[in-house]
Amino acid sequence: MRLLMMGTGPFAVPTFQWLLESEHEVVALVTRPVAAPVGRRKGPASPMRDVAEAHGMTVFDPQDVNAIESRQRLTELAATLWVVCDYGQILSAETLGIAPKGGINLHASLLPEYRGAAPINWAILDGKRETGVTVIHMTAKLDSGPSLVQLRTPIGDEEDAVELEQRLARLGVDAIGQALSMLASWDGSSAIGAPQDRSLATRAPRLKKNDGRVDWSRTAEQIRNQVRALKPWPATFTDWLRSDGTAMRLILDRVRVVETDAPDGAVAGQIVHAQKDQLLVAAGCHLLSIERIQPAGKRVMAIDEFLRGHPMQVGQILGGEPTDES
């Protein structure tokens, strides 16, 4: 088939690379525009653009893919089917109607669970033990088209969002291949795929900075899931008010649940042990062991190294009022 790839982020790269090596003809990449650098900071990485340029492929990066001039350009590309993954814009019904066989979308969840921008993060945040990928035949409503292919996989007990995204991206290649086989003989008008049960739909909204703030009244297991889920951004953080009255932002990089009841009288976020290579904090009714930590603006370090340079005292309480905007 004559395909048009639409994608921006790294989740789409394995699928794009596979399509370029397949028997299908990929006519162009449609991707988000590159943001201008701010000050000394470079603009965000654009891995899909990098792949396309390495293959000498046409790249189209409209500000609004649904604008009239954008639809004209898409019509000229004359693709039979659009393959969409991690693109970043919602396609209107008029735009989807340009391709004779419409568009398919690779989504990193078992739809209708976790519709939205951050399905991998929310699955880990919610403590899910299983996830997967779904290829849908697209409609103008977000992540709501009929399911063509769905592949499942367990979530590793220690797996974080970065690791799970890489694994699901590879799993998505097989799902896209199966979907293309289904569509190769499709007449373009008859019903295809399994409709999603809207009553089972859940949301996975885009993450905000303040989603990373630790609420120490939550259980130790919930906070452990938060640490895994929010890598690399916004990360999981708390504030430590030191003995000299200054505050330090601490990013929790790796933690472990200690199946021991918190001492009587301990409040949420209270340090109950801080010696050598162990830092235990009361969370919910149990304890959380912080094993790797990153002071704001510094590198990640093992807890023994951190405690040597930053002595913490039993009884101090982590958390408190936000020190910046969400």
Task: Describe the SSE topology.
Blueprint lengths: L1 E6 L5 H9 L3 E6 L16 H8 L4 E2 L7 H10 L3 E5 L7 H4 L6 E5 L11 H7 L4 E8 L9 E8 L6 H24 L35 H10 L6 E6 L5 E12 L12 E5 L2 E6 L2 E10 L5 E2 H7 L17
Parallel strand pairs: 1-2, 1-4, 2-3, 4-5
Antiparallel strand pairs: 5-6, 6-7, 8-9, 9-12, 10-11, 11-12, 12-13
Helix pairs in contact: 1-6, 5-7
Description:
This protein is of the alpha/beta class and 326 residues long. The chain folds into 2 domains: 2-200, Rossmann fold; 209-309, Roll (Methionyl-tRNA Fmet Formyltransferase, Chain A, domain 2), CATH 3.10.25. It is 24% helix and 25% strand. It contains 8 helices and 13 strands. It has helices spanning 13-21, 47-54, 68-77, 93-96, 119-125, 161-184, 220-229, 303-309, and strands at residues 2-7, 25-30, 59-60, 81-85, 103-107, 130-137, 147-154, 236-241, 247-258, 271-275, 278-283, 286-295, 301-302. The strands form 2 sheets. Strands 3-2-1-4-5-6-7 form a 7-stranded mixed beta sheet. Strands 8, 9, 10, 11, 12 and 13 form a 6-stranded antiparallel beta sheet that branches. Strand 11 (278-283) and strand 12 form a beta hairpin. Helix 1 (13-21) runs parallel beside helix 6 and helix 5 runs antiparallel to helix 7. The longest helix is centred in the middle third of the chain and has 24 residues, at 161-184. It starts with a strand and ends in a 17-residue tail after the last helix. Mean pLDDT is 93; it is low at 322-326.
